[in-house]
């Protein structure tokens, strides 16, 4: 069987710095676990604009469509701020998401015990937290028609339309149920079925997909406002949460902040299953290119490394290796190894980007 394939797009700013540490993990899997990826690399964002005059070359787009998973660093930087909108670095990322039709955005909120003090919530509420928010990304009120600012009589009216088709709901529900089977086997669907027709349909369709295709997964429904309360009161009751684009935007940011530093947050965007059964997939840290610290060895590579762990679990069915990698990160944090962003009042051993990567690889070695 062919090796699993991975396209690495490191991008700009700290992107290449954090990606260098992921490459150490990829090399380790090859050398120590006999897991070999066919890795190709290409440009996205500002660096692609510098080379080709476009933030995403057609050849790169074609490669992204052909591989099993894309791993992206970050794009953008002050150097590109004055560029025309059509060639801004972010357009490269948007084109990837759009043409790969990545409709399920996965944002985990995972709290490592050693960093529980960084949370705005009480330590016991967040310690050991591990939940996944699945946000519908390509439809809903951000895209629905009619939209615009109109004049009615003698005043202006702003209009956006929340619109979901049955198939749009069903496909993101399937993504959530598939994920739940690889995790805690529990899905909570959030909408506002009490006041919105699109919410009523959402609830019906999620229930139907569940009953027909995923009866083994535990499903519950919650109004999104109650969900926001429960996320701050007792987040550990959840495993996978599936919700629409607007509520998911809010709830995933809320959940992310339960866990502390931006340098720790991974994400994935998934699309339809390909012929080999794997979903179209793009994995990337939540953070940007961090121009304020780029080139100084200060970047925390953990968000990017945990994004790769998600790829192992959700694209390559290597859940055990993903867990091993997450445990290695946990161990290094418990040992007090700290990039500058993680240095709290409790102190720790200060390290740079490369040293953090080395410590994680050493912890992987120790796990054998
Ligand atoms: P940012 O996420 O790059 O940085 C925000 C703050 O967090 C900065 O102080 C930065 O130093 C810090 N930070 C971010 N990642 C870190 C890490 N791994 N380790 C330690 N500290 C980290 O967001 P900002 O400053 O708003 O945007 C900078 C550039 O990145 C802009 O050009 C923006 O358009 C782009 N951007 C790109 C994204 C992407 O590629 N997906 C997402 C967000 C912003
Ligand atoms: Mg947001």
Automatic annotation (TrEMBL):
Top enzyme class: oxidoreductase
Residue sites binding NAD(+) per the record: 77-90, 288-300
One example GO MF annotation: 3-isopropylmalate dehydrogenase activity
Details of cofactor binding: Binds 1 Mg(2+) or Mn(2+) ion per subunit.
Biological classification of the source: Bacteria, Pseudomonadati, Pseudomonadota, Alphaproteobacteria, Rhodobacterales
NCBIfam families named in the record: leuB
Binding residues for Mg(2+): 225, 249, 253
Amino-acid positions noted as binding substrate in the UniProt annotation, renumbered to this chain: 97, 107, 135, 225
Quaternary structure (record): Homodimer.
Site-annotated residues for Important for catalysis: 142, 192
Residues covered by the Isopropylmalate dehydrogenase-like domain: 5-360
Protein name (Swiss-Prot/TrEMBL): 3-isopropylmalate dehydrogenase
SMART domains recorded: Iso_dh (SM01329)
Localisation: Cytoplasm
Keywords from the UniProt entry: Amino-acid biosynthesis, Branched-chain amino acid biosynthesis, Cytoplasm, Leucine biosynthesis, Magnesium, Manganese, Metal-binding, NAD, Oxidoreductase
Membership in a protein family: Belongs to the isocitrate and isopropylmalate dehydrogenases family. LeuB type 1 subfamily.
Record InterPro entries: IsoCit/isopropylmalate_DH_CS (IPR019818), IsoPropMal-DH-like_dom (IPR024084), Isopropylmalate_DH (IPR004429)
Catalysed reactions, semicolon-separated: (2R,3S)-3-isopropylmalate + NAD(+) = 4-methyl-2-oxopentanoate + CO2 + NADH
Cofactor: Mn(2+); Mg(2+)
Metal-binding recorded as keyword: yes
Pathway linked to the protein: Amino-acid biosynthesis; L-leucine biosynthesis; L-leucine from 3-methyl-2-oxobutanoate: step 3/4
Presence of keyword Lipid biosynthesis: no
Gene3D superfamilies: Isopropylmalate Dehydrogenase (3.40.718.10)
């Amino acid at each position: 069987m062919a090796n699993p394939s991975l396209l690495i797009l490191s991008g700009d700013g700290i992107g290449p710095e954090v990606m260098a540490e992921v490459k150490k993990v990829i090399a380790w899997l090859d050398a120590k676990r006999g897991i070999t990826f066919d890795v190709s690399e290409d440009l996205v964002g500002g660096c692609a604009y510098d080379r080709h005059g476009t933030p995403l070359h057609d050849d790169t787009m074609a490669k992204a469509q052909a591989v099993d998973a894309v791993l992206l660093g970050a794009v953008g930087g002050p150097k590109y701020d004055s560029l025309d909108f059509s060639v801004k670095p972010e357009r490269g990322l948007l084109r990837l998401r759009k043409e790969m039709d990545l409709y399920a955005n996965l944002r985990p909120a995972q709290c490592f015990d050693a960093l529980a003090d960084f949370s705005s919530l009480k330590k016991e509420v967040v310690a050991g937290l591990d939940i996944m928010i699945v946000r519908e990304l390509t439809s809903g009120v951000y895209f629905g028609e009619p939209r615009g600012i109109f004049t009615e009589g003698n005043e202006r009216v702003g209009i956006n339309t929340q619109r979901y088709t049955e198939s749009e709901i069903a496909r993101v529900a399937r993504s959530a149920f598939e994920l739940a089977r690889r995790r805690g086997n529990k899905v909570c669907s959030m909408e506002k079925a009490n006041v919105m027709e699109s919410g009523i349909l959402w609830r019906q369709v999620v229930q139907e997909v569940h009953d027909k295709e995923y009866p083994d997964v535990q499903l519950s429904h919650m109004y999104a406002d109650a969900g926001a309360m429960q996320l701050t009161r007792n987040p550990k009751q959840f495993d996978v949460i599936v919700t629409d684009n607007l509520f998911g935007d809010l709830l995933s940011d809320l959940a992310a902040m339960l866990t502390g530093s931006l340098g720790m947050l991974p994400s994935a965007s998934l699309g339809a299953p390909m012929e080999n059964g794997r979903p179209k997939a793009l994995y990337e840290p939540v953070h940007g290119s961090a121009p304020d610290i780029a080139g100084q060895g200060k970047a925390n590579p953990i968000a990017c490394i945990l994004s790769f762990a998600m790829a192992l679990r959700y694209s390559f069915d290597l859940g055990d290796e993903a867990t091993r990698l997450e445990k290695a990160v946990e161990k290094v944090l418990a040992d007090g190894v700290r990039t500058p962003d993680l240095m709290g009042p409790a102190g720790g051993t200060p390290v740079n980007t490369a040293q953090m990567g080395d410590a994680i690889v050493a912890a992987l070695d120790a796990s054998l």
